[in-house]
Amino acid sequence: HGPGLDLLHKDKSQFANGIQEMLVRGIVFDACEFSMKERKVAKEQLLPGIATVPAGIYHIVKKQSEGWYYIKAGF
Question: In the chain, pLDDT over 90 holds for what percent of residues?
């Protein structure tokens, strides 16, 4: 949602190297397919190793119901 998708976009991310380093450490990045469709971003345009979920908000709610916490920073 918002600028978060650009963070994961091959041609727009200013942090591609840092994201790749985090992926190697086991950190998972999920892109919202709903937002991707709205913004006309194909999976092939994402950085290597980025996963997708059908709807980001659903994924967040599901994780919270499993005991995860959501912390929003910025935007």
Answer: 83
